[in-house]
Specification:
UDP_glycos_trans_CS; Rossmann fold; glycosyltransferase; six-stranded parallel sheet; seven-stranded parallel sheet; disordered N terminus; EC 2.4.1.-; transferase; alpha/beta; UDP_glucos_trans
């Protein structure tokens, strides 16, 4: 009925327009839509034009496309987001702040709309990277929910920044020293190499300044949803988080949250379909999948060492290499590499990652340690070979290798500045052989246990499932 329609819950959802933030909020949106929510997603104009067909197709494949509408606002162009470059980080931070006025105007128009088919927005779910959302929702008079796309461990570390500054542990001067941070509540000791990359920056760096600002936001936000599950990071971490923000709940992995359905890819770029047919021709448990995500780049010198190492190994692999993701490489070099490894390897521009990780031929994942990739790898029971690049990925690498013991890392992580160190082909070959060989059986046992916990968490009666039902 019209009255029931107007009383239906209706959430406005605002992601940062990058793949790593859009994807989990898209999955959260369809999980809420499957539970009767109307969802209105705010998308930056260029991003909406570029991705609308793929997003609409993704939602329709779950049978919940009708519960989601899209609105556009001026904002950040995804092509401008490069968190490894300080000037780009500054542009990113400025653009985030400039989105406040158009988003507020859009919400106000929605509240005033007299439309029996679309009820007014009853809550605003925003990415934690928008520091102004609480101010907007207070003025409009609707509840605010923050969504954190990274780990609970990352939040605890960010909230410890004032203490770390006071003790002189940041900015980090040398990541190679044998010292651990032992005073962050809820976390095991943190080696200096595991601290985020911008912990080496000055306090005027926008990435570092953003961490300081978010620490205050967590303490004042009514509800915080985290794309994680308590069985992964541990009760101590989540209790420490709730000491900071009492209404904190884990709802992940969100990409598995639709009951009775298989996890789906939500890439906003065209995926190469050849990879799955190629995988089907490989032996079970034989393929190394390589992807460094949607933002990270690789130097040409490092690419040459990786590519030569793969040639020497002669092991089956799939490598997703985005255009312009290898700095300084000529297209001819990549084409030559593709031809050299054609008999045992496949190079694509983008791949259906979830499908690849779930495929029985896939044995391991060489990853940049983005949080989405970690959750997808864990849920698929695939060990990880860590190559962290930006943001909190060093911390994620530490969790994977030392805390959960489901992966390995390279020696450059313990150098003064890992980005300035090229890992030679000999080390690459040695580490990959260990990672793919019989010596890694303990990694596979550990990740299998975590995979089972992940699927229990999102099943009826599981921790994340019940949290989302609140």
């Amino acid at each position: 009925s019209t009255g029931a329609r107007r009383l239906a819950p209706h959430a406005a959802v605002l992601p940062i327009p990058t793949q790593g933030h859009i994807s989990p909020l898209l999955h959260l949106s369809r999980a809420l839509a499957s539970r009767g929510f109307g969802i209105e997603r705010k998308a930056e104009q260029e991003q909406r034009n570029f991705t609308s067909t793929r997003i609409d197709s993704f939602m329709a494949s779950y049978g919940c496309g009708g519960g989601i509408r899209f609105e556009t606002v001026p904002g950040i162009q995804a092509s401008d987001v490069d968190l490894a470059v300080p000037e780009k980080r500054r542009m990113f931070s400025e653009a985030v702040m400039e989105m406040q006025a158009p988003v507020e105007s859009l919400l106000i128009r929605n509240m005033a709309r007299d439309d029996d088919l679309v009820p007014p927005v009853s809550c605003f779910i925003s990415d934690m990277f928008f520091p102004w959302s609480a101010e907007v929702t207070r003025r409009i008079g609707i509840p605010e929910v923050k969504f954190w796309t990274a780990s609970a461990s990352c939040v605890l570390l960010e909230c410890a920044v004032p203490q770390m500054l006071e003790k002189g542990d940041i900015p980090v001067q040398d990541r190679s020293i044998e010292k651990c941070i032992t005073y962050v509540d809820g976390l095991s000791p943190l080696p200096m190499w595991s601290l985020p990359g911008d912990f080496s920056a000055n306090d005027d760096d926008p990435g570092f300044a953003g961490k300081c600002a978010r620490a205050k936001i967590f303490a004042t936000t009514s509800w915080v949803l985290i794309n994680s599950f308590e069985e992964l990071e541990g009760s101590a971490a989540f209790q420490a988080f709730r000491d900071i923000s009492p209404r904190t709940i884990a709802v992940g992995p969100v990409f598995t949250m639709i009951p009775g359905s298989e996890p789906r890819n939500s890439a906003l770029w065209e995926e190469d379909s050849e990879s799955l047919s190629w995988l089907g021709k490989q032996s079970p448990g034989s393929v190394l999948y390589i992807s460094l995500g949607t933002i990270a780049t690789l130097s040409f010198d490092q690419f040459k060492e990786f590519s030569e190492g793969l040639r020497l190994l002669q092991r089956p692999f799939i490598w997703a290499i985005r255009p312009k993701s290898v700095t300084g490489m000529e297209p001819e070099f990549l084409e030559c590499f593709k031809e050299t490894v054609r008999s045992f390897g496949l190079v694509v521009s983008w791949a259906p990652q979830v499908d690849i990780l779930r495929h029985p031929s896939t044995a391991g994942f060489l990853s940049h340690c983005g949080w989405n990739s970690i959750l997808e790898s864990v849920a698929s029971a695939v060990p990880m070979l860590c190559w962290p690049c930006v943001a909190e990925q060093n911390l994620n690498c530490k969790l994977v290798v030392e805390d959960w013991k489901i992966g390995l890392k390279f020696s450059n992580m313990t150098r003064s500045d890992p980005r300035d160190v090229v890992v030679a082909r000999d080390e690459f070959v040695e580490v990959v052989e260990r990672f793919m060989g019989a010596d890694s059986e303990h990694l596979r046992i550990n990740v299998k246990k975590l995979s089972e916990e992940a699927h229990r968490a999102v099943s009826r009666g599981g921790s994340s499932y019940e949290n989302l039902e609140r």
